[in-house]
Specification:
This protein has about 70 residues and is mostly helical. The chain contains 1 helix and no strands. It comes from Pseudomonas vranovensis.
Length: about 70
């Protein structure tokens, strides 16, 4: 039996591979959540800028050319 080669993977190797894969999936999911939060923040900033621009344009129109 000492001369036989072991074939396949041991349970420890499989568990370690699953752990590494799980950490990778978890990291990818966390990155996706951060990207969604950044996108939402950018959307709110853009909407605020458009609103402010509209208000300034309305004030400019109300002021008229002679005021």
């Amino acid at each position: 039996m000492d001369g036989e080669r072991q074939q396949g993977m041991s349970l420890i190797e499989v568990l370690l591979a699953m752990l590494v894969l799980g950490l990778g999936v978890f990291a990818a999911a966390a990155a996706q959540v951060r990207a969604l939060q950044a996108t939402d923040s950018a959307l709110h900033s853009t909407q605020a800028a458009y609103l402010q621009h509209g208000e300034r344009e309305q004030a400019r129109i109300n002021a008229g050319p002679g005021r």
